[in-house]
C-alpha cells in the first residue's frame, strides 16, 4: 500500500506493509479508542466534580454568595459606565514620620435604650440621710432589664348551686341550678387554652421535644407525663380540623401558589425498628399570605395530584418531574425557580469559571431589578412593566447564549448539567415576567419549610402517620401566623378559647390573616 503526501511542494511516497482493508480497520480502531478516551475523560471530570461537591458538603462553606470580579460595583440593570481615560502619571515616593497624638479622652460607650413598650416596675431609693429642707432638683434614672420565668397558675371556676323552691308541695322533684361552665378545648380536661398554646408553641415554633416540655413543667411544680401531653395535643388537633380545612380551601382558591416538598421520618407499625420516609407537601399563597402543609406517605405524584386536583392558576416549583403532570393549558401554568438554576451554576464555578461567572453575573442583574422594584414599592402592574423593559432583554440574550454554549461543553460536566437543567426549564423560568404577582424564585416557600428541618433535628420523627398530619396542621397555622406578623401564642390561646363555640360559617374570622383578639390577657 502506498501513502502519498506533499511537503514543501515535493511529492513523497511511503511504502507500508498494510493493505487497504487493514488501514481502514486501523482507522476504525483509532476512532473507537478516541471515543473511549473521550468517554473516560468525561467520566473523570464527572467524578472530580462529584468529589469537589462532596468535600464542600463535608468541609466547605454552605454560602452561595457570588461577587463578580468584573463590574462588581455596577451591576445595576447592566448599565455599566465607561471606564474613564487615565493618563500615565509620574509617581514620586515620599517617606515621612508622623507621631500620633495621644489623647487622654475617655470614650464613653453608648447604650441602646430599652423598648418603651416593656412594663416598668419602679423603685424609689431615697438618700439614707436627707437633711431637713432639702429641695428636689431632679432624678437619676437607671434602667435594668430583668426577667420573670414562666409560671403555672390554676384558674378556679366556682359555680354556686341553688335549689329552686317547689311550685307545688306535692312535687317530689327538687330542682338545682348552677352557672354554665365555659366550653374548654378539652372537655373535662385539666389543661386550659393558655397551657395548650404554650405546649404547641414550644414544640412547633421553638422546636422543643416533648420530654423537654415535661422537664420544664416539672421545674414549675407540676408533673405531667409525655403520654398525657400527646393525648392533649391529639384532642386539640381534632378540635382544629375544621379551621385547617378552611385554611386549605383558601390556599387552593389562590391563583398563585409556590410549592415544594420535604421528607419527615415517621414511625410505622409495618416497619418495626425503622422509620418510614413520609413527605410534607407545602403550598404558599404569596398574595393571600397563607402557608399550607399537607402530609403524604410518599414523594410520588399522587401527593400533589390529590392536593391540587381542583387548583386553577400559576404554580411555581423546582424542577421535580412530579409537577409535570400539572402543565395543563387553561388550568395550571407552571413557573420554575431562577434560584435553583443559579445554584447549578454556582456549583459549576470550579469546573468552568468563565461560563459560570457569566451566567451568575447576568442573574445578578435580574435580582437587582427585583430589588429596585421591591425597594420602590412598585404595584404589580408597575413591576410587570419594569420587568418587561429591563429583565426581558437580559433573559432573551442569556437564553440564546445557553443554547450556543451547551453544544460546546461535556454533558456530564458540572457546567453541562447546569446548562441542561436551565434550558429544560427556560420557558418556565421566564414566565415570572407575565404577571407582577409572580416571584423570580420560590425561596419564600423554602423559608417556610425551614421550620420542618429544625423540627426534625429536635423531635426526630412523627409517632404515626396521623401524628404527621397533625404536625402538618400546626405548621400550617404557625407559618401563616409568621407571614401575617401575628404572635402565635396569643393567637392560639384565643382561638382555642373561642373555637368550641364558634360558628362553622365564620371560621375565616379565626385564621391568622383575619384574626382580631376579643380581649387581651396577662396569661
What would you note in describing this structure?
This protein is an alpha/beta fold. Among the domains are: 2-51; 245-482, no CATH class. It contains 13 helices and 9 strands. The chain has helices at 20-59, 193-204, 210-219, 226-253, 302-307, 338-347, 353-375, 380-406, 414-424, 426-430, 443-459, 465-483, 488-498; strands at residues 2-7, 10-15, 162-163, 176-177, 256-267, 275-285, 290-296, 313-316, 332-335. It has a 5-stranded mixed sheet. Strand 5 and strand 6 (275-285) form a beta hairpin. Helix 4 (226-253) packs across helix 12. The longest helix has 40 residues, at 20-59. The relative contact order is 0.11. Mean pLDDT is 81; it is low at 72-87.
Which helices and strands appear, and what pairs or packs with what?
Layout: E1 2-7, E2 10-15, H1 20-59, E3 162-163, E4 176-177, H2 193-204, H3 210-219, H4 226-253, E5 256-267, E6 275-285, E7 290-296, H5 302-307, E8 313-316, E9 332-335, H6 338-347, H7 353-375, H8 380-406, H9 414-424, H10 426-430, H11 443-459, H12 465-483, H13 488-498
Parallel strand pairs: 5-8, 8-9
Antiparallel strand pairs: 1-2, 3-4, 5-6, 6-7
What key phrases describe this protein's structure?
523 residues; 13 helices; extended; two-stranded antiparallel sheet; alpha/beta; 5-stranded mixed beta sheet
Parts with pLDDT < 50 across at least 5 consecutive residues: 72-87
What is the first-to-last residue Cα distance? 102 Å
| Rg over C-alpha atoms, rounded to the nearest angstrom | 35 Å
Shape: extended
Strand order of the largest sheet: 7-6-5-8-9
Percent range of helical residues: 40-55%
- Beta-strand share of residues: 5-15%
- By DSSP, the count of extended strands is 9
pLDDT average, as an integer? 81
**How does the major sheet shape up?**
5 strands, mixed
Helix/strand-derived category reads alpha/beta
- Provide the succession of SSEs: EEHEEHHHEEEHEEHHHHHHHH
List the total number of helices: 13
Amino acid at each position: 500500500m502506498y501513502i502519498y503526501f506533499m511537503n514543501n511542494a515535493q511529492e513523497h511516497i511511503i511504502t507500508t506493509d498494510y493493505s487497504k482493508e487493514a488501514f481502514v480497520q486501523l482507522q476504525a480502531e483509532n476512532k473507537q479508542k478516541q471515543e473511549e478516551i473521550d468517554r473516560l475523560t468525561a467520566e473523570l471530570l464527572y467524578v472530580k466534580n462529584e468529589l469537589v461537591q462532596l468535600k464542600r458538603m463535608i468541609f466547605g462553606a454552605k454560602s452561595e454568595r457570588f461577587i463578580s470580579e468584573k463590574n462588581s460595583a455596577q451591576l445595576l440593570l447592566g448599565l455599566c459606565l465607561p471606564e474613564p481615560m487615565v493618563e500615565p502619571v509620574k509617581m514620586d515616593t515620599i517617606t515621612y514620620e508622623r507621631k500620633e497624638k495621644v489623647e487622654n479622652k475617655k470614650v464613653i460607650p453608648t447604650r441602646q435604650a430599652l423598648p418603651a413598650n416593656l412594663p416598668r416596675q419602679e423603685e424609689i431609693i431615697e438618700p439614707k440621710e436627707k437633711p431637713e429642707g432639702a429641695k428636689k432638683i431632679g432624678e437619676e434614672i437607671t434602667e435594668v432589664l430583668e426577667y420573670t420565668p414562666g409560671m403555672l397558675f390554676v384558674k378556679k371556676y366556682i359555680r354556686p348551686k341553688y335549689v329552686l323552691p317547689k311550685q307545688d308541695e306535692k312535687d317530689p322533684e327538687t330542682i338545682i341550678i348552677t352557672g354554665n361552665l365555659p366550653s374548654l378545648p378539652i372537655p373535662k380536661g385539666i389543661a386550659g387554652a393558655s397551657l395548650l398554646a404554650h405546649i404547641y408553641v414550644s414544640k412547633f415554633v421553638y422546636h422543643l421535644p416533648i420530654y423537654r416540655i415535661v422537664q420544664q413543667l416539672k421545674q414549675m411544680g407540676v408533673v405531667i407525663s409525655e403520654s398525657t401531653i400527646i393525648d392533649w395535643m391529639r384532642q386539640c388537633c381534632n378540635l382544629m380540623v375544621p379551621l385547617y380545612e378552611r385554611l386549605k380551601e383558601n390556599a387552593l382558591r389562590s391563583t398563585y401558589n409556590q410549592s415544594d416538598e420535604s421528607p419527615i421520618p415517621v414511625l410505622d407499625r409495618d416497619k418495626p425498628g425503622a422509620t418510614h420516609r413520609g413527605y410534607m407537601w407545602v403550598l404558599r399563597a404569596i398574595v393571600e399570605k397563607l402557608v399550607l402543609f399537607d402530609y403524604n406517605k410518599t414523594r410520588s405524584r399522587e401527593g400533589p395530584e390529590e392536593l391540587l386536583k381542583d387548583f386553577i392558576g400559576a404554580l411555581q416549583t423546582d424542577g421535580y418531574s412530579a409537577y409535570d403532570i400539572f402543565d395543563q393549558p387553561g388550568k395550571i401554568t407552571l413557573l420554575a425557580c431562577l434560584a435553583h438554576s443559579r445554584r447549578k451554576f454556582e456549583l459549576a464555578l470550579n469546573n468552568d469559571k468563565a461560563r459560570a461567572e457569566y451566567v451568575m453575573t447576568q442573574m445578578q442583574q435580574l435580582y437587582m431589578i427585583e430589588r429596585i422594584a421591591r425597594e420602590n414599592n412598585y404595584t404589580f402592574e408597575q413591576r410587570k412593566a419594569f420587568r418587561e423593559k429591563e429583565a426581558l432583554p437580559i433573559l432573551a440574550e442569556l437564553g440564546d447564549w445557553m443554547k450556543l454554549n451547551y453544544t460546546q461543553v461535556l454533558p456530564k460536566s458540572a457546567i453541562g448539567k447546569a446548562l441542561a437543567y436551565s434550558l429544560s426549564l427556560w420557558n418556565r423560568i421566564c414566565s415570572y415576567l407575565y404577571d407582577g404577582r409572580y416571584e423570580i424564585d420560590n425561596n419564600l416557600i423554602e423559608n417556610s419549610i425551614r421550620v420542618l428541618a429544625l423540627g426534625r433535628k429536635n423531635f426526630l420523627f412523627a409517632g404515626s402517620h396521623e401524628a404527621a398530619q397533625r404536625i402538618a396542621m400546626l405548621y400550617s397555622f404557625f407559618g401563616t401566623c409568621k407571614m401575617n406578623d401575628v404572635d402565635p401564642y396569643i393567637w392560639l390561646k384565643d382561638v382555642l378559647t373561642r373555637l368550641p363555640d364558634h360558628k362553622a360559617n365564620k371560621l375565616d374570622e379565626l385564621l391568622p390573616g383575619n384574626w382580631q383578639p376579643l380581649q387581651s390577657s396577662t396569661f
